C-alpha cells in the first residue's frame, strides 16, 4: 500500500501475522475511515467504531484463520470475523471487509485499497452473519 492524497491517504497501517499487512485509508462515503465514521452504508455509528479497542478486534478478525471465520465475497475481497464477548458478557462478532485490489485515485494507483469497513454484529456468527454494513 502506498500513501497518497485525499481519499488515498493511509490513516493507519496494520501488521498482521497470518495475512498480508493492510491499512485504513481516509476513504470516502463508500470505504475507509470516512465510511466507518459515518456508520457505514446504514448510518449506524453505534456498531462502527474507530476506537483503539475496536481496532484491536479488527486485527484479531483479520488474523483469524479459524475454519469458517472468513470468506471471499468478491475477487480480491476478504471478509474476516472474530467472535468475542463484551465486559458484560454480550456475545458479538467483529466483521472486517478488506479489498486487496489496486486502488486508483486521481489517475494514479496506490496499491491495495485496504479496509472497506469494520463493524460488530450481535451474537457469535460467521461471515454469513455479517449483515450489510
Q: Return the string of H and E elements.
A: EEHHEEEE
Unreliable segments of 5+ consecutive residues: none
Side by side, the strands of the main sheet go 3-4-5-6
Number of strands: 6
Overall 3D geometry? globular
Helix-strand makeup class: mainly beta
Q: What's the mean pLDDT score?
A: 93
Rg (CA only) = 14 Å
The helix fraction, in percent, is 10-25%
Question: Percent of residues in beta strands?
Answer: 35-45%
Cα distance spanning the termini = 24 Å
Helix run count: 2
State the major sheet.
Answer: 4 strands, antiparallel
Report what the structure shows.
- By secondary structure, the protein is mainly beta.
- 13% of the residues lie in helices and 38% in strands.
- The protein contains 2 helices and 6 strands.
- It has helices at residues 32-37, 52-62; strands at 10-14, 22-25, 70-71, 77-85, 91-105, 108-122.
- A 4-stranded antiparallel sheet has the order 3-4-5-6. Strands 1-2 form a two-stranded antiparallel sheet.
- It is globular, with a radius of gyration of 14 Å.
- The two termini are 24 Å apart.
- The model has no long low-confidence stretch (mean pLDDT 93).
Amino acid at each position: 500500500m502506498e500513501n497518497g492524497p485525499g481519499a488515498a491517504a493511509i490513516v493507519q497501517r496494520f501488521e498482521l501475522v497470518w495475512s498480508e499487512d493492510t491499512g485504513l485509508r481516509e476513504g470516502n462515503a463508500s470505504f475507509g475511515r470516512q465510511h466507518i465514521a459515518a456508520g457505514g452504508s446504514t448510518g449506524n455509528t453505534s456498531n462502527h467504531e474507530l476506537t483503539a479497542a475496536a481496532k484491536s478486534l479488527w486485527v484479531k478478525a483479520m488474523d483469524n484463520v479459524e475454519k469458517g471465520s472468513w470468506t471471499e465475497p468478491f475477487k480480491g475481497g476478504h471478509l474476516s470475523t472474530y467472535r468475542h464477548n463484551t465486559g458484560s458478557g454480550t456475545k458479538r462478532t467483529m466483521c472486517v471487509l478488506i479489498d486487496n485490489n489496486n486502488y486508483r485515485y486521481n489517475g494514479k494507483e496506490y496499491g491495495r485499497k485496504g479496509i472497506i469497513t469494520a463493524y460488530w454484529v450481535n451474537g457469535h456468527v460467521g461471515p454469513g452473519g455479517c449483515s450489510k454494513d
